[in-house]
Amino acid sequence: MLDFDAYIRRIGLDPADKPTWQAVHRAHATKIPFENLDSHRGIPISLEQADLERKLVASRRGGYCFEHNLLLASALEHMGLGVEPMLARVRADGASRQTRPASHLVLRVTDRDGRQWHADVGFGLGTLLDPVPFGPAGVHEQSGWSFEVVEDGDELVLRTLGPDGWADVYSFPPHPAFRIDIEVSNWWVCTHPASPFVSRLIVAVSHDDGRREALHDFSGSLLALASSPDGTEVTEVEREAIPSLLARRFGLPGFGLGPDGRVVGEDGSGLAVMRPPKL
Q1: In this structure, how many other beta carbons lie within 10 angstroms of the beta carbon of residue 8?
Q2: Per-residue pLDDT tens over the stretch 158-168
Q3: In terms of pTM, does the model score above 0.85?
């Protein structure tokens, strides 16, 4: 990490307090929003360390899983922990692993005592707030939300407890991913026309008390969601409200709407020419 102290201040902690890595995980998960505003407006996502820190730390933006978890990984490595990134397939709406690309990134963290942990601050609609022991190890309650990891053949599956019972979030083989494969997956997510992160909008934030807020149009209509472990309130909103909602509810000022209703910068920037990633 290029500027560890700036990152620690970005997530609301004081570098002088020397926070634990678990505290860093929760602070990151609750202070930096999840958002796909760049890929939504045609700007490809760079995973270079300097670009991650410039965007999520200095510019106080958010990002999606590759950005969040690679930024966290660099911080944890700075703190002396071992970190292995792994590619996962989202199952949140009941999809089987055969029908989804490996479009999510999770981390296996090894602490100084040799214990291994499952870390993830980058799942848009309900990420872990705290790391959990790696692999099946019972139910973990976090600010009212419950998670568990189970085995499914040669993969591990993160599950969460909802109103209708346990539901899969994502699955992944417990093997480190090569950086080239992470770059390829990221390029598909941020540029391919079939990627929901290109065609749709999603912004979300988790709060320390367990509340979650989200804005997305994955179902076609633009919906604002306010969730807690007790349930979810869903409100349909007009697209004209997007800039003010981004600023007020997600701490993301500086955006407007183009004539087609898609998010652009206040200067109209968007739909940039796609550039291949640096490999």
Answers
A1: 24
A2: 999 988 899 99
A3: yes
